[in-house]
Design goal:
Elements lengths: L2 H28 L11 H20 L5
Length: 66
């Protein structure tokens, strides 16, 4: 197998891993990240703030800064 094909295969495998993690993140979000909505406190808000910042950094890697 040539180097270009090997790189493509690795890229596609990592793309599949990204999709799997995005699906899991969506499942967690749909379940309030495992928290009881009636028990949300400011610590949870701070945690999500860090998550949002991390996601913004990831989007910036692909030139999608908001």
């Amino acid at each position: 197998m040539n180097t270009k094909q090997s790189a493509l295969d690795a890229y596609l495998a990592r793309t599949a891993a990204v999709h799997a993690k995005l699906e899991r993140l969506q499942q967690l979000a749909n379940d309030h990240f495992g928290h009881d909505p009636d028990a949300i406190h400011w610590g949870h808000v701070g945690d999500l703030g860090r998550v949002v910042a991390g996601l913004d950094e990831l989007l910036a890697i692909f030139g999608d800064g908001e």
